[in-house]
Design goal:
Structural class: mainly beta
Number of helices: 0
Number of strands: 11
Shape: globular
Radius of gyration: 13 Å
Distance between the termini: 37 Å
Length: about 120
């Protein structure tokens, strides 16, 4: 069972930056799409960014140009660089991996993802 552990969350002022990290107990970028979800209080969990097996990245419209996801195979780590943060970005951020990137963009897919992290809190205020 692959374990995903997120870190890097915290509190930041609007316009600030944070970099989230997700360390995987087994690194399988050739087998899985990897990426990030977030959930704000009272809202549905939503896909934010994903990086496919060939390195292609896809982002939620509201974060395009501000967020960048990347992976470091040598460190078995997935990153989410978040710049120009706004209060609307405040949420619990979760790392996930699954063979299918399409799950990031279909509602309600979180329980169906093969591997899921426990989350790290991001607060922008």
């Amino acid at each position: 069972q692959v374990q995903l552990v997120e870190s890097g969350g915290g509190s930041v002022q609007p316009g600030g930056s944070l970099r989230l990290s997700c360390v995987a107990s087994e690194w399988t970028p050739s087998s899985n799409c990897m990426g990030w979800f977030r959930q704000a209080p009272g809202k549905e969990r939503e896909g934010v960014a994903a990086i496919d097996r060939d390195g292609t990245t896809v982002y939620k419209d509201s974060v395009k140009g501000r967020f960048t996801t990347s992976r470091d195979n040598a460190k078995s780590t997935l990153y989410l660089q978040m710049n120009n943060l706004s209060p609307e970005d405040s949420a619990m951020y979760f790392c996930a991996a699954d063979p299918t990137c399409a799950k990031w963009w279909s509602p309600g897919q979180w329980p169906a993802l093969r591997y899921r992290g426990q989350g790290t809190q991001v607060t922008v205020s």
